[in-house]
Task: inverse folding
C-alpha cells in the first residue's frame, strides 16, 4: 500500500526514517497529471533503490504564463493510483506556503540561479522558468534527501540545470531517463491531455521532424544548418506555430547555435499546437533506438 502524505513535513519524517534504516531512496519530482513517462521514472527509481517516493506539486514559480498555470491538469487521486501501480512507496504534496515557510514570516522566496544550462533555447523564451525549477527542486531535495533523483530527457535543459544544482548541493545522484513516447511518436506530456484528437495528430510533427533529422544524421548529414533546415521544413509542412528548432552539443551547452559539422548533436523543438505549448528533443548521434522506449 502506498503512503499518501499531505505536506512536506510528514514527507521529511518518512524519508528520514528510511535513511535511518539504511535504505537507499529514489525520488521522482512531478507536477502530477501523470502519464507513462512519469511511470517509467518511478519504475526505474523503484528498481535501483530500496524504496522510492514521488512528489506532486504544480509549482507556480516555474510558470511564466498564468493561463498555462491555471489550465494545468490536476487530479491527485488518479495520480496516486497510477503511482501505486508503478510501485511507488510514498507520494507527498504540499502548498506553496508549506514548501516555503519563509513566506509566512513575511520573507520573499530566494530564487536560485539556475546556472549555464538555462541559457538560450527553452530558457530564452521562458524567462524565470529554470530559476523557478531550481528553486523548488532544491527545496524538494532538502525535504527528501534522496540517494538518487530521476528526471526525463524530454526536458533536456531542465536536466542540465538539475545536474548543476545537485553538484552544488553535493547530492543526490541524478539519473536522466529516456523520453517515453505515444505509439504515434508524440512524447508523453501532461499537456497532451489538453489536446483535441485533431491537435494530437498534428502534434506528431515534432517527433517526426526530430526522427527525420536522426535518419539524416545516420546517413552522414552532420551539418548544423542543414539539419536545422530539415527539422524546420517538417514542422512548417505540418503548419504548427513554431517557437524554436535548435541544435546544440549536448556535452558542451552553449547559448549560441553551432555552425558547420557537429560531432554530437541534441535537437530541441518547441511549438504551439492550438493553445498548447509542446516541446521535444532527440539526441541525433545516439545508437539506441528511442522508439523502443514507447
Ligand atoms: P513534470 O510533471 O512535467 O514536471 O515532469 C516530471 C518529470 O517527468 C520530469 O523529470 C520530466 O522530464 C519527466 N517526463 C515528462 N515527460 C516525460 C516523458 N515523455 N518521458 C520521460 N520522462 C518524462
Result:
Amino acid at each position: 500500500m502506498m503512503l499518501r502524505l499531505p505536506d512536506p513535513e510528514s514527507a521529511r519524517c518518512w524519508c528520514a526514517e528510511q535513511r535511518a534504516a539504511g535504505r537507499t531512496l529514489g525520488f521522482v519530482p512531478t507536477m502530477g497529471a501523470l502519464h507513462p513517462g512519469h511511470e517509467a521514472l518511478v519504475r526505474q527509481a523503484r528498481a535501483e533503490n530500496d524504496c522510492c517516493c514521488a512528489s506532486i506539486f504544480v509549482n507556480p514559480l516555474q510558470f511564466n504564463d498564468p493561463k498555462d498555470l491555471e489550465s494545468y491538469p490536476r487530479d491527485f487521486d488518479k495520480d496516486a493510483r497510477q503511482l501505486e501501480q508503478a510501485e511507488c512507496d510514498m507520494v507527498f504534496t504540499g502548498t506553496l506556503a508549506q514548501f516555503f515557510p519563509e513566506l509566512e514570516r513575511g520573507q520573499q522566496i530566494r530564487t536560485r540561479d539556475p546556472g549555464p544550462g538555462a541559457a538560450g533555447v527553452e530558457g530564452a523564451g521562458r524567462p524565470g522558468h529554470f530559476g523557478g525549477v531550481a528553486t523548488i527542486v532544491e527545496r524538494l531535495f532538502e525535504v527528501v534527501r534522496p540517494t538518487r533523483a530521476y528526471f526525463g530527457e524530454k526536458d533536456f535543459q531542465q536536466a542540465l540545470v538539475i545536474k548543476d544544482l545537485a553538484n552544488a548541493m553535493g547530492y543526490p545522484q541524478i539519473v536522466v531517463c529516456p523520453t517515453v513516447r505515444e505509439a504515434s511518436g508524440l512524447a508523453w506530456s501532461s499537456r497532451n491531455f489538453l489536446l483535441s484528437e485533431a491537435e494530437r495528430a498534428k502534434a506528431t510533427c515534432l517527433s517526426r521532424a526530430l526522427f527525420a533529422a536522426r535518419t539524416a544524421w545516420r546517413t552522414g548529414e552532420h551539418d548544423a544548418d542543414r539539419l536545422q533546415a530539415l527539422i524546420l521544413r517538417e514542422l512548417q509542412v505540418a503548419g504548427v506555430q513554431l517557437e524554436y528548432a535548435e541544435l546544440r552539443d549536448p556535452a558542451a551547452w552553449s547559448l549560441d547555435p553551432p555552425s558547420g559539422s557537429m560531432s554530437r548533436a541534441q535537437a530541441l523543438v518547441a511549438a504551439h499546437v492550438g493553445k498548447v505549448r509542446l516541446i521535444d528533443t532527440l539526441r541525433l548521434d545516439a545508437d539506441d533506438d528511442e522508439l523502443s522506449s514507447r
The mean pLDDT is 95.
